[in-house]
Amino acid sequence: MTLPDPFDVRTAAVSAVGLIGGYTAARVTGKRPLGGLVLAAAGGLAARTWIARDGAGPAAALTAGYIAAFGLSHPLAKAIGAWPAVLTVTAAHAAAAHVVSDAYRR
């Protein structure tokens, strides 16, 4: 199996799939490690793309933002509910990925 060309990957969508898909996988199956696997796989593909396309600095910032979004969704969920929290952090990170990386590739 070959990975897609980094210049063809829309990382905003990939990070959204990782955050929403990871939460969905964990919730539906009751297996948190499965959700973590989805989260990590999407994050890895996005990070690979950011490194190849944008360099180490932007890649590090976007990867840190992805991890922070996952982490912040937990306390936010206590305040506004699980799905609203996941959707909020996903929208924020997807917007950042689009502005920092994807918008320059179209």
TrEMBL record:
<protein>
    <submittedName>
        <fullName>Uncharacterized protein</fullName>
    </submittedName>
</protein>
